[in-house]
Automatic annotation (TrEMBL):
Similarity-based family: Belongs to the mitochondrion-specific ribosomal protein mL43 family.
Keywords: Mitochondrion, Ribonucleoprotein, Ribosomal protein, Transit peptide
Cell compartment(s), UniProt: Mitochondrion
Organism whose genome encodes this protein: Dissostichus eleginoides
Residue ranges occupied by any Ribosomal protein/NADH dehydrogenase domain in the UniProt entry: 35-108
GO biological process: mitochondrial translation
One annotated GO molecular function: structural constituent of ribosome
UniProt GO cellular component terms: mitochondrial inner membrane; mitochondrial large ribosomal subunit
Protein name: Large ribosomal subunit protein mL43
InterPro entries linked to this entry: Ribosomal_mL43 (IPR039927), Ribosomal_mL43/mS25/NADH_DH (IPR007741), Thioredoxin-like_sf (IPR036249)
Length: 157
């Protein structure tokens, strides 16, 4: 926590994702719905149309479909780091549910918080951060806009 009262952290990669091959962080997905409730109509439509395609495109994620006597349909996502997210999908269409599943699949399971810096390294350099003028010789002087040909042509007259 910072003095602002909002949590923050440095930028970090989950399980060194991006260094080697990509590892999807979503490991288990449970779709809980009611067989009869009107609020589960979109979920039942998604199960008939799109759950097989989703499972085919995401082979590393286990998909559980469990009909229960519940009023509120929900999707429970479990990630490799142990975090669990629940999304309520009451009265959503099949397309909206597939968008929710895509969002949950692309997340890492970490809480969404403010980043302290847009860059961070585990092995900091004592030389400082590089920028285009790091090795510029000081004898050149400051950078100024170049004079245009029109101004030079008038001064020659």
């Amino acid at each position: 926590m910072t003095s602002r009262g909002t949590p923050s952290r440095f930028l970090k990669s989950v399980l060194q994702n991006g260094v080697g091959r990509y590892v999807c962080q979503l490991k288990r997905l449970s779709i809980i719905f009611s067989k009869n409730a009107q609020s589960s109509l979109g979920v039942r439509g998604f199960i008939e149309e799109g759950v097989v395609d989703y499972a085919k495109y995401n082979p590393s994620t286990v998909v559980y479909v469990s009909p229960q006597s519940c009023r509120i349909p929900k999707i429970v996502a479990e990630y490799l780091n142990g975090n669990v997210r629940e999304e309520i999908v009451t009265s959503k269409t099949s397309i909206q549910i597939s968008e929710v599943l895509t969002k949950l699949t692309n997340q890492s399971g970490l809480d969404i918080i403010r980043l302290r810096k847009p860059f961070h390294t585990d092995n900091p350099s004592i030389q400082g951060q590089w920028h285009p003028f790091t090795n510029r010789p000081p004898c050149i002087g400051p950078i100024r806009p170049q004079k245009q040909d029109a101004e030079q042509g008038l001064s020659n007259i």
